[in-house]
């Protein structure tokens, strides 16, 4: 099943690499669709703007992004990291 995150990330990837979103598969290698270091930066800026994220360069380097699926999971993980966490003490009214 394709998620909203998957579709949005794939669309950005297709725009940056001048590919067709419907032709990109989860297991396709990013280098095989034409993503290089410069286009990766362009892609990350697009993703940051679309999702309201700030992605640290170090996080990208440590993520070892190889496939389209890796990229989608990375963005999903970044989004989870931006959600405010509610501790048990915050959830109780005293």
Model description:
This protein is an all-alpha fold and 94 residues long. The chain has a single domain, classed as ACP-like (Non-ribosomal Peptide Synthetase Peptidyl Carrier Protein, Chain A, Orthogonal Bundle). Helices cover 54% and strands 0% of the residues. The longest helix has 15 residues. The C terminus is likely disordered. It is built from four helices and no strands. Helix 1 packs antiparallel against helix 2 and helix 1 crosses helix 4.
Task: Looking at this protein, list some descriptive labels.
disordered C terminus; 0% strand; single chain; Non-ribosomal Peptide Synthetase Peptidyl Carrier Protein, Chain A; mainly alpha; 4 helices; 94 residues; 54% helix
Strand content: under 5%
Q: What number is the mean pLDDT?
A: 86
The gross shape turns out to be: globular
Kindly give the count of domains. Answer: 1
Helix content: 40-55%
What is the topology?
Layout: H1 4-17, H2 37-51, H3 57-63, H4 68-82
Helix pairs in contact: 1-2, 1-4
Q: How would you sum up this structure in a few lines?
A:
By secondary structure, the chain is mostly helical. 54% of the residues lie in helices and 0% in strands.
């Amino acid at each position: 099943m394709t998620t909203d995150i998957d579709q949005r990330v794939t669309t950005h990837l297709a725009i940056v690499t001048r590919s067709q979103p419907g032709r990109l598969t989860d297991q396709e290698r990013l280098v095989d669709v034409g993503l290089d270091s410069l286009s990766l930066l362009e892609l990350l800026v697009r993703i940051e703007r679309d999702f309201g994220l700030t992605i640290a360069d170090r996080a990208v380097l440590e993520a070892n992004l190889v496939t389209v699926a890796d990229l989608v999971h990375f963005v999903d993980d970044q989004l989870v990291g931006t959600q405010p966490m509610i501790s048990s003490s915050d959830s109780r009214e005293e």
